[in-house]
Amino acid sequence: MSEDRICVGAIGGAYGVRGELRIKSFCAVAEDIETYSPLTSEDQGQTFHLALIRPIKNGFVARIAEVATKEAADALKGVQLFANRDQLPSLPDDEYYHTDLIGLEVLDTGGTMLGRVKNVLDHGAGDLLEVQRPSSSETVLLPFTLAAVPTVDLGAGRIVADPPDGLF
User: Buried-most residue among 4, 119, 159, 164 (CB within 10 A)?
Assistant: First the structure.
């Protein structure tokens, strides 16, 4: 995937029988997904002009101009929606897009390699970095807090972590 594009949501399938869709937004302000329209699929093969209709549990009901039937809406289930990075707001120095953290090396404060960020998880109580250990399929969940992750250096492609005792 290009670094100029960021996943801002996903299509959950049809909502009703008139071509409306269920949309899950990954934006900090969920409604902002509409302002980044037109959105594209991951391979940029499809473009979507999105209009939110109303909120529902875990997302929104939306209409996409290119989708007119329930069957067409169901065919898009699982498609991730991408916006160009230049459409998104600039972040303060201590905030990051999840996509920018994935793949970064994680070192402890002594410089020992702990692994690489495989995923960023948000279960409501704060972000967790899923760190894959070197030469292993084992992963460790590192709290993404200032105490546990004092330094994120996107330019150098690394994170300096001070994990709680016994985590690694």
Answer: 159
SS3 101: helix
Per-residue pLDDT tens for 65-79? 889 999 999 999 999
Task: Yes or no: say if 67 and 76 are a contact pair by the CB < 8 Å rule.
Answer: yes
Looking at the fold, whether 81 and 102 belong to one and the same domain comes out as no
Cα 129 to Cα 64: distance, rounded to the nearest angstrom: 33
Summarised one tens digit per residue, pLDDT across range 134-167 is 988 999 999 999 999 999 998 899 999 999 888 8
- Taking the alpha carbons of 80, 86, 91, 93 in that order, is the dihedral positive or negative? positive
Residue 76 domain boundaries = 5-87
The CATH number for 46's domain is 2.40.30.60
Please say which residue of 44, 67, 87 terminates a domain.
Answer: 87
Sequence letter at residue 92:
P
